[in-house]
Amino acid sequence: MTDPSRPRRLIIHAGTHKTASTYIQARLDLNRDRLLSQGITYRFPSSESTTFKSLTKAISDGAWSLWDAYLSSCSHSSDDVLISAEQFSPRLCDPKVIARLRQVASKHGYVLNIVIFIRSQLDYINSRYAYSLKRFYHTQTFETYLTEVLEGRLPSCGTFSGPRAKRQDVFDFWNYFSALLEARRDGLEVTFIPFRQTDRDPFVQLLQALQLDPGLPWAMSSDDSRNRSPGTRGTWLARALGLRLAEHGISHRVIRNSSAIIPSEERFRGWKDPSFWGYDSDHSRRVTRHFKSNNNQFAEAAWGKPWKQVFVHDDKLRKRPQSTFSPSSPSEAVRMNHIADHLLLRVARRLEPRPLHLLREPMERLSSALI
Predict the structure, then answer these.
(1) How far apart are CA 276 and CA 94, in angstroms?
(2) Which of 119, 186, 242, 306 stands the most exposed, by the fewest C-beta atoms within 10 Å?
């Protein structure tokens, strides 16, 4: 229950990306009544919405009246308010945004709290590579992607320039979250959660950060809420299709639901491959050495201890064997490339639909499965 002796909190769970935010949000939504019984309101900005993206967009647009309207609608209660969207994370790199959020929260009688998950770079880079490849944001090999990341260039983030340009140093937490660390020293409540280190379930980690009892009967979400990365063959296929899309001048921006193409194909073909893991031992050592100094500075600021005492699973990640795919025979190469060709044809047809396309697609898909 809410403690009447302390101010109401406006709690923003701000990701980061690839820290199970979709799963966490699904469980928060399922447990809205349970949260309310514990003194926390979890409510979307409108009855038509199922996300808080309108509030993150309002920050970019300077439309703070949307925040006023939302918090005014919650202010009749003494409960805390919880908001969750990984899109907050890059916006909270701006000290002006942090200051404005604190002002808006205070205006409506709340104290701003920020909660952010931090994922080890070894895991985080690999996950973002597979995710961005699945979305066709780039067509690089893992080795090239890793080299660019370590040189301070984040592939696929060069879409915007000027004030809308995206930060390139998302894996360097000491620099990326410098504004939040400074605001924390200035009294802002900021909780950094080491992703899947203190508990394997990030929802439980969030409950603990909110000082809620994980032992309560919290409803579980379906497996569909887990935004899984493709397996080894799916990752190979994503790059093969991405290269074809680039060759034909088809941008990922015009492809509806692009993130579902590869997972759907994996399910259709019954692939049960291991997860992609692009590192060999040399890659792992490069990443560890590159971030070591700044990681320790960040860990001391966030948790008061060295990085290795917080991210206790990094040794296992460094020893994890590489898990990738390449065709093992000419016939397998033909088969995999045929699947990529078929997917390209499907994407192109859906961009310019014709009457018989809906009939031709299932037949061609079945024929491709026989090769």
Answers:
(1) 33
(2) 186
Domain span at residue 212 reads 8-119+157-225
Question: Could you give the strand order of the β-sheet that contains 80-84, starting from the edge strand earlier in sequence?
Answer: 40-41, 80-84, 8-13, 110-118, 189-194
Q: What is the pLDDT of residues 322-356, one digit of tens each?
A: 999 999 999 999 999 999 999 999 899 888 877 66
Q: What is residue 220's three-state secondary structure?
A: coil
CA atoms within 13 A on the CB side of 354: 8
Query: Of 51, 42, 21, which is closest to residue 212 (Cα–Cα)?
Result: 42
pLDDT digits (tens, 9 = 90+) for 193-202: 999 999 999 9
Do 338 and 258 share a structural domain? yes
How far does Cα 66 stand from its chain's mean position? 24
Whole-prediction pTM value? 0.91
Taking residue 255's Cβ as centre, other Cβ atoms within 10 Å add up to 17
Mean pLDDT of the chain: 92
Distance (Å) of CA 213 to CA 9, 39, 200: 18, 13, 16
